[in-house]
Amino acid sequence: MNRKELIEALAEKTGSTKADADRNIAALIEIVTGTLKKGDNVALVGFGTFEVRKRAARTGRNPATGAELKIKASKVPAFKAGANLKAAVNGVKK
User: Fold this and answer.
1) Is 36 in contact with 52 (CB distance < 8 Å)?
2) For labeling, which of 1, 50, 86, 92 is most exposed (least CB within 10 Å)?
3) Burial class for 11, CB neighbours closer than 10 Å (0-12, 13-18, 19+)
4) What's the Cα-to-Cα distance from 2 to each of 5, 46, 89, rounded to whole Å?
């Protein structure tokens, strides 16, 4: 499902317009992004948690030349699925 399909599904599910659904999705993305940028988590009980994980510096290889290169440490966004979401995906009733 892409963004357009998500907007259409949200509009249909809530009985709102596509424009309203688009604004709601944009607002949600903005809120989650801003919260993660501050280093905080966004926990949606039963659905999952958006969080920031630290990735350590490491040595990599250039696939074309085989030369070693240093990859800097970084922070990456991550999503950890909640129990209800895992159960739904696996077809288990909870």
Assistant:
1) yes
2) 1
3) middle
4) 5, 23, 18
Q: Can you give the three-state secondary structure of the chain, one letter per residue?
A: CCHHHHHHHHHHHHCCCHHHHHHHHHHHHHHHHHHHHCCCCEEECCCEEEEEEEECCEEEECCCCCCEEEECCEEEEEEEECHHHHHHHCCCCC
- CA separation for the pair 94, 91 (Å, rounded): 9
Q: What is the C-alpha to C-alpha distance for residues 70 and 5, in angstroms, rounded to an integer?
A: 40
Q: What is the pLDDT of residues 12-64, one digit of tens each?
A: 999 999 999 999 999 999 999 999 999 999 999 999 999 999 999 999 999 99
